[in-house]
Amino acid sequence: MYILDTDTATLWLRYAAQYPRLRKKIEAAPFEQIWVSIVTVTELMRGALAYLKKREQKGEFVLGFELAAAIITDIKKLQILPFDEAAKSVYRAMPANVKRVGAKDCQIAAIAIANGFTVVTRNVRDFQRIPDVKFADWTT
User: Global pTM?
Assistant: First the structure.
């Protein structure tokens, strides 16, 4: 079972043609094996809302709303893992120096660890600093 980190989910949803290896690996896997975390969903939503705000400030409402609609459509294609009590326990047990990697990466890692999943990420450098998380880069 695999959990796509935010960067990888974005590459697959928005730039799949530029990452054929990633697209091929994701599309070859059975649907029930590919997941994203609620952390990734909230990051995607925040990004869409920030983009919408920038477009609104420039009077470009249509572009902003188009991206927001695309993100919602994309999210509906995905299976979403929650940040539950098990993930919270894993996250809380992480030492402070590990959490300096970044709260969102650590939260995604905690969800993966709690569920026995492998994180699919290009961000290997940060994930290798998080104990007990399995990860793979499907872009190289």
Answer: 0.90
Which residue positions in the chain have pLDDT lower than 50? none
Q: Read off the tokens for 25.
A: 């690996």
Number of folded domains that form the chain: 1
Looking up residue 43, the CATH number of its domain turns out to be 3.40.50.1010
At residue 36, the 3 state secondary structure works out as: strand
Question: How far apart are alpha carbons 19 and 134 in whole angstroms?
Answer: 22
Spatial distance between the Cα atoms of 19 and 8, rounded to a whole number of angstroms:
10
Number of continuous H segments (helices) and E segments (strands) in the chain: 8, 5
Return phi, psi of residue 79, to 5°: -90, 135
Angle at 130 between CA 118 and CA 102, to 5 degrees: 105
